[in-house]
Write a structure and sequence with these properties.
alpha+beta, Serine Threonine Protein Phosphatase 5, Tetratricopeptide repeat, Heat Shock Protein 90, five-stranded mixed sheet, rod-shaped
Length: about 375
Amino acid sequence: MAGSGDSAGVASAHSSLARILIEEGRYREAVTEIEPALAIAHRLDLNPVIKTAYQVLSDCYRYTGKTGKALEYRERAYLMERHLLDENRLRSIDELEIQYQTAETEKQLALVENENLLKARQLLQHRWAITLLAAGLLFAVLLLLLFRQQKKVARLMADRERTEHEQALAKLQADKEFAALQALFAGQEQERRRIANDLHDSLGGLLYAIRLQLSGGSADKARQTLETAMAENRRISQDLLPPALARLGLFAALREWRGQFEQTFGLPVRLELPEADIALPDETAVSLFRIAQELMTNAAKHAGAGWVSVRIVPEAGRLSLLVEDDGAGFDASALPGTAFKTVRSRVRLLGGQLRVESVPGRGTTVTVVNPF
C-alpha cells in the first residue's frame, strides 16, 4: 500500500510537470513527461490520472499540429471521463443501496426493538397484574385468617366466660350444699347430744328412782323390767353419742364401739390404732367415728364378711382411716355415684379424700384420708 501511494504521487508529479511544460510551450517535453505518468496510472488503474494524461497528450498533439492524435486522445479522455462518471454513478448507487440497506436494517432493528419493548411492556404489565392478583389473594387470605382468628378468640372467650359462669354456679351450689351438709350433720350431732342427755338425765334418773323404790319389796319382775329399760337407755345413749368419744377421744370411742359391734353382730373386729393418742378437733373426731360406724355396719349387714378390720394410720399432715372386710366385694368401677352417700358427704366436709377398692369375691377396702 505504501508503494502504490508513492507511485500515485510520482504519476501526479509527472502530470503536474507536463502541464507546466505545456504552459511554457514545450510540448515535446510535456509528452515525454506525461508518458511515465500514464504508464504508472495504467499499472495502478488510476483512472483520474489516466484521464488527465489523455487530456495533456491531446493538448500536446493539438498544439504540435497532430490533429489525429489529438482527437484520439481527446476521445480517450472523453471515454475515461464517461467511465469515471459511470463509476461514480455506480458508486453512488452502491452507496445509496448501502444506505438503503442500512436504513432498512435499522428500520428492522427499530421494529424488532419496538416489538421487544412492547413485549417487555406487556410482560411487565402481566407481571404487575399477577403481582397485584397475588397480593389481593394474600390480603384476602389474611383477612379470612384474621376473621377466623377473631371468631376463634371470641368463641374461646365466650366458652371461658360460660365455663367461669358454670364454675361460679357450681361453686355456689357446692358451697350451699356444703353449708347445708355441715348444718345437717351439726344439727344431727346436736340433736343426738340433746337426746342422749335427756335420756340420761331424765329417763335414766327416773328409772333409777323406781329401782330404788322397788328394791325393798318383792316385785322381782318389775325390777327386771326396769333393769332392761335402764340397759336399753344406756345403749341408746351410747349409740347416739358414745360417752368415751366426748370424754376420751376417737381411739377410746372406737375401742368401746368394737365391743358393742362384736356383741351386736357377732363379727370379730381387728382394731389397729396408734399407741399415742392424737388430739383432733371435735368435728373431725365425730365425723371419723361416724364413718367407721357406718362402714363397719355395712360390712356386717350387706357384705357377708367373716371379719372386719379398722386401722388408723397417722402420716405427715394427715390421718388415714382404713375399714376392710373379707366379704363378697363388688365391681368398684361400676360403683354408682349414690353409693356411700353419707360417708362421701362427711369426707367432703372434712376436706378429705375417699378411695373405694373392691373386687367381687375378694372383699372391700375403704380408705379415708383426712388432713389435720
